[in-house]
Write a structure and sequence with these properties.
YaeB-like fold, 91 residues, 4-stranded antiparallel β-sheet, globular, alpha+beta, 3 helices
């Protein structure tokens, strides 16, 4: 994931402002759990289907998404992909 973010920064597809919003997302998840994101309408968080069944998506930008899943009884949030252009593509 770090490589994907670093590549996005170098390519200019992820801005400093995007990073700040992503960091806020991470802070909220760590402090309050995924329910906070899922219940906060500003994140437009929703469940995904088809190829992404079992994953969720949160908006960090008009088109940008953080694609993640929750594993097990202990809440472990795994960020699977960050996309700047709302193109979920393949896992």
């Amino acid at each position: 994931m770090r490589k994907q973010i670093a590549d996005g920064i170098r390519a200019g597809s992820i801005t400093q402002e995007d990073l700040e919003v992503i960091e806020k997302w991470v802070d909220l998840i760590e402090k309050f759990g995924p329910e906070q994101i899922q219940n906060d309408r500003t994140w437009y968080d929703h469940e995904l289907f088809e190829n992404w069944k079992g994953h969720r998506s949160s908006a960090f930008h008009f088109k940008g998404r953080i694609i993640y899943r929750i594993e097990g009884a202990r809440v472990v949030v795994v960020v699977v992909k960050i996309t700047k252009d709302h193109d979920y593509g393949r896992k």
